[in-house]
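Page 42, continued from yesterday. The earlier attempt failed because a stray header line got pasted into the input along with the sequence. Redoing it now with the clean sequence only.
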Amino acid sequence: MTYGKYVPVLWLVVLMIISACNSNCQKEDEENGLEKLSASMKRYKTQWEDKEPRENEFYTCFKYKALKGLEYEEGISRRDPSSVIKVDDKYYVYYTRSPKTEAPVGYKRATDKLPANTWDLCDIFYATSTDGKTWEEQGVAASRGPEGEFDDRSVFTPDIMVYKGKYYLYYQAVKTPYKQRTRNVIGMSWADSPEGPWHRHPSSVLEPGEMGEWEGEEDDRRKIKSYGAFDSHKVHDPNLIVRDGKIWMYYKAHPMGVQSKLKKPYPDFSMGVAMAETPEGPFEKHSLNPISASGHEALVWPYKEGVATIITANGPEKNTVQWARDGVNFEVKAHVVLPPDAAGLFCPDKYDNTKNGKGFTWGLCHIAQRPDRPWAYLIGFECDLSSEVEKSQFKKENIRFDEYSRVNSNRAFVWKK
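This time it went through. Structure tokens are written below.
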């Protein structure tokens, strides 16, 4: 059978559909009074609802402040704070902490004593505070696993979940040896008290997706023959909420071949979500993953009847606040300047299975390593992403930066050779 004679008919049908769509769009524009507006003004009327940023509940700027007790310290990295929880009259935060060591030396020179980076050879520590400003480091919460186990090299990037009277720490974990091509998993420890003792779950609770194929034997994450799943290489930064009676774990993902020259089906940085009925899983990944094609950490909170997220650092939608009524299909709601790195929010209803999330106004974040200060440390921030508290000082636009910030804005960190 030949289909050649039907080609003109098919093209005619396609043209008729396109014409009908254009006509409908034009009709809708005319009905809404948009037919004589530029594309930008149409968005102002529709997406932005005639609102300036100061009127947008999702818009905020950020104020940063030093913390007492978690400052920069030579030889020790503190980074990736968890959500902040309050138990009785005390705040708790959990974070990645290295032993006192020399500066990171990169993957090629790393040993069992010398870290490859600031999240290598780490354990999860915790600190407490009565005011959220002055903190006292208390010690180890979740430590690395026994030799030969999936978490024997490092555990890092934690989040804390309070669920049915117990406390659950989720964190990224790697096994020895730690190389560029090492796959990460997410592990978990639990306790009856926010101060422990913590019980290590014997296996990972979330693993990377279907693998692609590496090219050659060299330890180079860029060189691949084929891509696998969007999270084929790493699952990072677990961030938890309780929603619709289930545990939702949002996470950052890397495919194999980050920065590869091959045409990729997935971005280098994305966010996925997996759900479970119980804290130990099994966690089932959502069929629409990745649910964000941008961002550097997974950072979510319940907001009104949906879920909100700050998308930072990477991708075409970086530096935005987004919201999804269903917790999956996120839409850009505001653009922000200088959002916090690896933020941990104080969001009291994060695990309440709420249908009316209240948002938050403060949290902790980290200041990453740089050549002259090669260890990370924690600071605090304030903002206005609350449905109950209005802070007009955080609705300011046209944020200005000083000369130092501008001159140093594009400095790359270079590991020692």
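Notes: DSSP finds three helices and 23 strands in the chain.
Reminder to self: strip header lines before submitting.
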